[in-house]
Amino acid sequence: MTVSPSIASAAKSGRVLIIGATGFIGKFVAEASLDSGLPTYVLVRPGPSRPPKSDIIIKSFKDRGGIILHGVMSDRPLMEKLLREHEIDIIISAVGGATILDQITLIEAIAAVGTVKRFLPSEFGHDVDRADPVEPGLTMYLEKRKVRRAIEKTGVPYTYICCNSIASWPYYDNKHPSEVVPPLDQFQIYGDGTVKAYFVDGPDIGKFTMKTVDDIRAINKNVHFRPSSNLYDINGLASLWEKKIGRTLPRVTVTEHDLLSMAAENRIPESIVASFTHDIFIKGCQTNFPIEGPNDIDVGTLYPEESFRTLDECFNDFLVKVGGTLETDKIATKNTAAVGVEPMAITATCA
């Protein structure tokens, strides 16, 4: 591939615009951009259309030198104006849900301005051209594929970040599994529990994403996050957590039929998560293909000197969060044992 000098150097002084920075993944990316020292701009929705908690996150960006811009990416004239006025070099989108297709309008604005050196659309999960979840998850992937085709049609330089799973216990019926501690009552095992997946800590997603934005080796590539240290199946995750809490928990099988049934209920977001869980832990969408195509590269190959935080370390964080609960449970176990009463199971709560 021949890369023009202007595209080849999204220089270290390049200006980064992040859209969706107050979301779960976007926050990690924005923090990593600020850590990198690049001039970081954050596009936020104006006024009352933002969730209340967003204001706290936005203030934290401002306090660290982030520049806040107001608007929505579906407003093409405004986006063209902002990109020109602020001389934006790199755009990273971390939006989700109903706004995924709005990125097509943003791509039109990027193409019209003609000076953006790299666009990273809202991927941050599986390779959507290879993964094939059932509905309703499939609709989201079809929309992301449309965004990919729109980028490729315009010739805008891109990087697709395929970072796989967040380092946490993968609850199939929760919107953000990473916000919930691993189980304290019982494990739900998907199928036979032997299908593996890759787990990546949020700050590592941000760190490695930012390393790719000015790397010519990542232009027009699918960048896959496959840390060998974090390749686990559900049985392995359960064993790791049992070692942390110092006790064995019962295991309950969640069958393929169970996951498909929940997906078919079309309850948002639970059904979407169930469809993705089925694709990961039944069909093996993260591991059932090799990284060997001309448009694929492993982030570990790009940056062999950089390490990933291990899932073992991430589970230590969860252990700290549930520490008080575990101490209470030990006291309850001791007291009830004296009178021959079984201790009550503790249900995991939001972290």
From TrEMBL:
Which keywords appear in this protein's UniProt record, sorted alphabetically? NADP, Oxidoreductase
Could you tell me the superkingdom of the organism this chain comes from? Eukaryota
Q: Output the InterPro entries linked to this UniProt entry.
A: NAD(P)-bd_dom_sf, NmrA-like, NmrA-type/Isoflavone_red_sf, PCBER-like
EC numbers for this chain: 1.17.1.3
According to its UniProt entry, one GO biological process term is: lignan biosynthetic process
- Gene Ontology molecular functions: leucoanthocyanidin reductase activity
Q: Which residues form the NmrA-like domain?
A: 14-313
Q: Does the keyword Cytoplasm apply?
A: no
Q: Name one Pfam family in it.
A: NmrA
Known PANTHER family for this protein?
Answer: LEUCANTHOCYANIDIN REDUCTASE (PTHR43349:SF16), PINORESINOL REDUCTASE-RELATED (PTHR43349)
Q: What is this protein identified as?
A: Putative leucoanthocyanidin reductase
